[in-house]
Design goal:
membrane, mainly alpha, DUF2304, transmembrane helix, transmembrane, 113 residues, 88% helix, single chain
Length: 113
């Protein structure tokens, strides 16, 4: 991996980390929701600074090139995050339906009185 590419990766990962922390400090997001992205940006920083880790993992998993390993790992992590968000959205939709039913029932009872 060229030095220029490593520098760009480190700067991009640090920029992502800074942006996430800034959003948390301005209370525009919840810390629980950003934990994944903080960990993801830290992993990107580590891989950019120490590319030997990605090379080693690609060799251990017998993946032809390091780039394929990185794409595979990132794809897996993002799909996992998407799965977790889908679960969260489903729970929230169920809760909204439940609350809407309670509000409708309360409004009905209020109009009966």
């Amino acid at each position: 991996m060229s030095v220029l590419l490593r520098v760009i990766l480190v700067l991009a990962a640090i920029g992502t980390f800074w942006y996430i922390i800034r959003k948390i400090r301005k209370s525009q997001t919840q810390i629980e929701d950003m934990g994944f992205w903080i960990a993801f940006s830290i992993i990107l920083i580590i891989i950019a600074v120490f590319p030997q880790i990605a090379i080693f993992m690609a060799n251990v998993l017998q993946i032809a090139t390091t780039v394929n390993f990185v794409f595979l790992a990132v794809t897996f992590l993002l799909l996992f995050q998407l799965f977790l968000l889908s679960i969260k959205v489903s729970k929230l939709e169920s809760r909204v339906k439940e609350l809407a039913g309670e509000v409708a029932l309360k409004n009905y009872e209020d109009t009966e009185e």
